[in-house]
Amino acid sequence: MSFAVPLEMETVVCPCGGGGSPSEVFQTSTRRYVACPACGLVFLSPRPSSSIVEEYYRESYDGSYGAAESSADRQPVFASVSAHLLEWRRPPGRLLDIGCGDGAFLMLCREAGWDCTGVEVSQGAAERARGKGLRVLSPAELGQSTGGPFDVVTLVNVLETVTDPAAIVRALTCQVKPQGIIAVRVSNGLFHQRMRVPVRWCGSQYDQAFHLFSYSPSALRTLVETSGFEVLSLRNSAPSLGPVTSANSLVRRLKWRLVGGGLSMVADLAYRLSAGRLVWAPSFELIARRVDGVS
User: What DSSP character marks residue 74?
Assistant: First the structure.
């Protein structure tokens, strides 16, 4: 996400509500990232105001990244999340995908047997998804929907980009049935913070990986568990086949795929050898279940 001249900037408080003064983690030419002393979550502060961020995703994001997000490069990501979900909950049932983009993940879920609904802020992406015959709502329409709670809610690379992830996860307790499942995929902040310099060899705009929030596995677990969910599984996620940009040379794409594939193999080996304790891929996935009595 980039803004030429942000009109309003705001200081950020960690969503965990733990308090304390955040410590600086790193800076780029245009950004400053700090860490919460309570949960360790890394986030951008100061940042553009919530209204500017919302406007960007509603009107401009699709023009910048729509082609890359709708390319086949993202298919391994969607397949990874879908396979993980199916280990814990299988169709039939109702599935809601928040931040569904042009509907590529929803199409995969529909093929698996789910009754699918999407939510999307970007007007252009939502129209393309509806053109595929998918039911896609705006956030406002979801709030007015009378369809009842869902069996599954998915968020694929959404919580990094929203201004209040805690509010969104808490709101999911109203969207998912008791004992219902949420599936979340985010970038692995610990991995990316350590790889900022080495991975520039790939030629990527690497600081884009950090967005508004940079989650470690423990920080995401804290966010989910304090919002009314029980974590069932947390593991590495498959990488995208290419960087999220609409113009990539053949050499850059080859470097990305070689490095991405190699890192994924190392991360999977570490995960297996540590009996699932070491989650060290560029992105990771979490499956959680709504706790009884939460509404």
Answer: G
Nearest to 179 by CA among 82, 88, 284: 88
Indicate the helix (H) or strand (E) that contains 217: helix 217-225
Instruction: Please report, as a single letter, which amino acid is at residue 240.
Output: S
DSSP 178: E
Cβ(149)–Cβ(255) below 8 Å: no
CA dihedral (50, 54, 55, 60) in degrees, to 10, reads 130
Three-state DSSP at 31 gives coil
Q: How far is CA 240 from CA 65, 213, 247, in A?
A: 14, 19, 15
Distance of CA 264 to the CA centre of its chain: 18
Distance CA 275, CA 142 (A): 39
Q: Calculate ∠ Cα 110-211-126, nearest 5°.
A: 35
Give dist(CA 109, CA 123) in Å, integer. 22
Pair of tokens at residue 185: 């995929």
**Per-residue pLDDT in tens (0 to 9) along the chain, 295 residues:** 554 444 588 999 998 888 789 999 988 878 899 999 999 999 999 999 888 888 888 887 776 666 566 667 789 999 999 999 999 999 999 999 999 999 999 999 999 999 999 999 998 899 999 999 999 999 989 878 767 799 999 999 999 999 999 999 999 999 999 999 999 999 999 888 887 776 666 555 555 567 899 999 999 999 999 999 999 999 999 988 765 455 667 777 677 677 767 777 888 888 888 888 889 888 999 999 999 765 5
Among residues 281, 247, 241, 284, which one has the least CA distance to residue 264?
281
CA-angle at 189, arms to 166 and 227, nearest 5°:
20
**Edge to edge, what strands does the sheet with 42-44 contain?**
23-27, 32-35, 42-44, 213-214
Tokens of 275: 């009996």
